[in-house]
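Subject: sequence -> structure tokens, single chain

Hey, anyone have a minute? Need the predicted structure for the following. Not urgent.
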Amino acid sequence: MSITIDDLKEMGQRVYNKVHPILGKPSAAKKSTKGAGGDMTMYIDTLAENTIIEYLKESGFNLLLISEEVGEQFIGTREEAIKNKRVLIVDPIDGSNNSVRGIPYCSVSIAYAEGTHMRDIVKSVIVNLNTKDFYWAEKGMGAFMNDQKIHVSELGTSDKPFFEINISPHNIEKKLIFLNPIISKFHRIRILGSTALSLCLVASGNMEAFINLRKSNRLVDTAAGYLILKEAGGKFFSFEGTEVDLELAIDKRFAFIACNAQMEHFLKQNLTD
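Reply:
Had a minute. Here:
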């Protein structure tokens, strides 16, 4: 049984119902163990992930779940999941630190693939856990925010574009020198804290680019937003200037550039090797 876009939306709705009431509260931040993604697991992460797992089990799905906390876990019949190459890639709370500090920028990110690589992602849902906005896409059918179709902007370097950067403090001066050729061309720079939502902002034309310099960025952070961005007419590529099409696995980490079509040539010219 294949997962529908309505299944993904229902998972997102259930996570919203569970975690929205505790956003910014001390109970959300209670820590337990280190998750498979490498970060300390907080109560809010576990609550969101368990909500999705419960839905999958009660619905009788057979698939491989790739999620930040449990890592890789088969749900239902392992043989059926492998045979049909059904994979669900989840970040239960993308922007966990924002969520527990009461900063209103966090999401649940859910992507469904029928295959083994990012190109095989066919359905995605990202829910803003503060505003309850649903971003979603099905391969070949466009991208949406709630019921409204979205598309990347058409702004270029002369149009006061916005961009977000995700950068670690390690060797920050060297990284800023690397970015210098493009910084002067952008009107505003943002650092927001949820990769999934930031990809949605580029997809919906609110920003023109998202430059993620962190090589520790995980597949679970990016999988759902990757499809939504591409279905909205956006571009997603590596710092080598090549298409990103990694194997679906919990250990995949990578830097990337996401942008509208107008910015692609400029960013490849100035940032890629």
